[in-house]
Amino acid sequence: MSKVFEFAGENDFCPGGPIYTNPKEPSLFLSLGLPVDVFFPSRKRSRISAPFVFSEERFEQKKQASIEVLPDECLFEIFRRLPGGEERSACACVSKRWLILLSGICRDELCSQNRSAVKNTEVKSKIEDEEIEGDGCLSRSLEGKKATDIRLAAIAVRTANCGGLGKLFIRGSNSSRGVTKVGLRAIARGCPSLKVLSLWNLPSVGDEGLSEIANGCHMLEKLDLSQCPTITDKGLLAIAKNCSNLTDLVLESCPNIGNEGLQAVGQYCTNPKSISITNCPGVGDQGIAALVSSASNVLTKLKLQSLNITDVSLAVVGHYGKAVTDLVLISLPNVSERGFWVMGNAQGLHKLKSLTVTSCLGVTDIGLEAVGKGCPNLKQFCLHKCAFLSDNGLVSFAKAAETLESLQLEECHRITQFGFFGSLLNCGANLKAISLVNCFGIRDLKLDLPELSPCTSLRSLSIRNCPGFGDGSLALLGNLCPQLRNVELSGLQGVTDAGFLSVLENCEAGLVKVNLSGCINFSDKVVSVMTEQHGWTLEMLNLDGCRRITDASLVAIAENCFLLYDLDVSKCATTDSGIAAMARSKQLCLQVLSVSGCSMISDKSLPALVKLGQTLLGLNLQHCNAISSSTVGILVERLWRCDILL
Ligand SMILES: *[C@@H]1O[C@H](CO)[C@@H](O)[C@H](O)[C@H]1NC(C)=O
Ligand SMILES: *[C@@H]1O[C@H](CO)[C@@H](O)[C@H](O)[C@H]1NC(C)=O
Ligand SMILES: *[C@@H]1O[C@H](CO)[C@@H](O)[C@H](O)[C@H]1NC(C)=O
Ligand SMILES: *[C@@H]1O[C@H](CO)[C@@H](O)[C@H](O)[C@H]1NC(C)=O
Ligand SMILES: *[C@@H]1O[C@H](CO)[C@@H](O)[C@H](O)[C@H]1NC(C)=O
Ligand SMILES: *[C@@H]1O[C@H](CO)[C@@H](O)[C@H](O)[C@H]1NC(C)=O
Ligand SMILES: *[C@@H]1O[C@H](CO)[C@@H](O)[C@H](O)[C@H]1NC(C)=O
Ligand SMILES: *[C@@H]1O[C@H](CO)[C@@H](O)[C@H](O)[C@H]1NC(C)=O
What we know:
single chain; alpha/beta; Leucine-rich repeat, LRR (right-handed beta-alpha superhelix); two-stranded antiparallel ribbon; 24 helices; binds 2-acetamido-2-deoxy-beta-D-glucopyranose; F-box domain-containing protein; F-box_dom; FBXL15_LRR
């Protein structure tokens, strides 16, 4: 045994007991990085006289402690001989210097036989600020000012006892005292089983920091780097070489990561399942091609956003993306029609189930038709902001995509009613949901179409903010889709009772969820017919902003709705008597009620609201100006089970 060790006296310092008087008080430990004082409890025969105080860097002691004169090397030798994790944790509380030294000890440098002798449960019960996730992984998240090297070192030392941290999330701030390679080195040494690492907004972490992780954490599976401008291909290369089990890689706004880094991931990682790359100007076709082609059999999820890639990348995806099930392509200005055409015709995307394309000018009629033909198992398709796509392309796509279950179109202004109904009529028998949002090319259709075979598979319909959508279109939809259950028509000022009544008339299934928010021209007639016909199925009804809806609707709801649990009549013309009618209802059993902005509902509704409140879990009374604060006070008191929004 070394002289140093004898001198220190094994039992004299860092005796086995917990350092905190209250073991459930980890704040002492945690606040090491902050300017607070830490008390060291006095011990019999301790060579370190107590109490002593340290604040931040400064380390004050009443008497000179002999052990402090030892150089780092000697302390290191002492620390690695400590019998267990408890003791190491305790010593780490002494000073920043001790903490840094302790956190620098690798697992295989420990002399003790009890490297991880402390039972997991014992230690975990003391680690309160770490979440223990369902998979048994310890997880820790540091944000803003708390993201410092000292805290990382503390985490590393403390969690080393129980096998180390499994997941680490660091959300940096732009403050100068950010995380550096020192903190990451501590993690790398103390947490060899780290599986998930997420670094956001950390300009102070560079390749050396990431290489530390690569050296120590060979089991890393998920890496998420966002806004880390100093990390380059070199850092990613180190990870790729040493963490061959990397499955998930997310890169966002890392300007110095480029093709070489991605090539390395393709070359060294055996199982990259999910890749997401956003706004990395250094990434081009070369990197994407290398990665996708070498991961051909394993890559299942791919997202490419705001990248300077061309048709070449899409061709590679189409050819090699044999295992890809989810593909997201957003803002790819240099991809042309040819890219989408080749991607579809390459015939590799046979497993693709979900495709999202946003802001890609290359999505033209020809491009989209090819995609429809090339993805024989596509189930979900979302198309946002595709300025050049027209009706013909959409209809050809729908004809080709026979397995499609869900189609969502948003801000595709060249799509008109012909494209919309054409795709509805030509989709296969699997289409269950269709959604049209902010499409300004839609005009109302007043056509006498020949007898059409209905689309019996469609269950959910959503039309939002398409100003041209009117009664003619709505009536036609009602005719075509007799099996609708969920209907959302919001912000449609062009539809009136007549349109919706024909939907109700044709509806063979019971409506379950109905959202008519912002359809200002609907009247009580709609609600009374709907509740009479669908009162036994209707569960959710949103009439927010339907200002012609009055108490008559609430009376109809009170009489006819047996299953309704969520009702929103915000900004409707409802009054106290409508609320009273609902309160009198025997069958109504609301859990959520919103009367926000109903200025005619007053204090008189107090008894009725209390009555309704017996079943309510949520009540929105925002902007109810005729309800006084004393009434609100009583409601809050009486409806203690219910969340009241004020
Ligand atoms: C190892 O740990 C066990 C139980 O935690 C303890 O009884 C034993 O004394 C420890 N051995 C050493 C050498 O510290
Ligand atoms: C740092 O963040 C603060 C607040 O978030 C912001 O006001 C400031 O401009 C930022 N500084 C830099 C250099 O980004
Ligand atoms: C991989 O890890 C080993 C030791 O764990 C280290 O020697 C080597 O330098 C690491 N390689 C890279 C590229 O970081
Ligand atoms: C990688 O995963 C395989 C299979 O799950 C496992 O056997 C191997 O130990 C892992 N490698 C590392 C370095 O964790
Ligand atoms: C895109 O790539 C081309 C060719 O590789 C290059 O000339 C151009 O500067 C890149 N543009 C951006 C914005 O990175
Ligand atoms: C992408 O488009 C920009 C501008 O249109 C052009 O300057 C650049 O060279 C293109 N990049 C590639 C790789 O073609
Ligand atoms: C809907 O109501 C608004 C305002 O009351 C009115 O200007 C508009 O003409 C109505 N629309 C239809 C289709 O009736
Ligand atoms: C109803 O539609 C509005 C407008 O689109 C939306 O904000 C709201 O979340 C929807 N409500 C429900 C319950 O789906």
